[in-house]
Each structure stands twice: as C-alpha cells, then as structure tokens.
Amino acid sequence: QVQLVESGGGLVQAGDSLRLSCAASVRTFSGYALGWFRQAPGKEREFVGSIKWSDENTYYADSVKGRFTISRDYAKTTMYLQMNSLKPEDTAVYYCAVRTTLSLRIWNPSAYGYWGQGTQVTVSS
What we know:
- The protein contains no helices and 11 strands.
- Strands 2, 4, 5, 6, 9, 10 and 11 form a 7-stranded mixed sheet that branches. A 4-stranded antiparallel sheet has the order 1-3-8-7, with no helix packed on it.
- The model has no long low-confidence stretch (mean pLDDT about 95).
- It is about 0% helix and about 50% strand.
- The protein is globular.
- The chain has about 120 residues and is mainly beta.
C-alpha cells in the first residue's frame, strides 16, 4: 500500500510560519489528488486543501485561503503545506492523504483512502 509520512509540525506563535512535508513511498500518482486535512481535539477531521499531482491544480478551504499554499516535488515524491500567518485556530494534527473515491467531494475525508500518521501544529496567541 501507499505509505505517507508527515513532518514539520511544532509549537509556534500567532503570525509565524511553518512548512509541513508529506513523503510518499510511491513515485507516481498519475491522476490522483493529494490532500491536507487537520483535526483538533474534540472536532471532526477538516479539509485544508488539495493538489492534483499531475498538473498542480490546487483547491483550498476558505479558512486557509491566502495563507496556506500546497506544492509538490515530483523527484522527491513529496507534498508540502506552507502555512503563513498562523492563527490559534489552526492548532490541530495535520494529515496528508490520497484521494481514492471520486464520487465523493474533494473536501470529504471519506474520499481519501490513504492517510499518514499526522504531525502536530500548535499555535499560541
């Protein structure tokens, strides 16, 4: 199966930046989309954004639009989440995932069949 490993989380103050990485064990995703999700304590898993592996088309949740940027590196088989102007409400465990069910919306966690272990991001005020 696909293996995904997130890294780059940490404790920062509001207004700071972080870059998360998602390293994959496979070299090609063809027409797949990869996504970033986050989950805060006591809350449901929330869509952050996605990128189509082949053409770099991206889609973002309104809550992060203009602050977060998703990119990918073909050679390293790695997806990145650049997070700027972080807010306390961004505090969560961040997961990367691979979309496998096209009949579900891209923001629906159930559309994603492969998940990483998550990396903690904590933003203090």
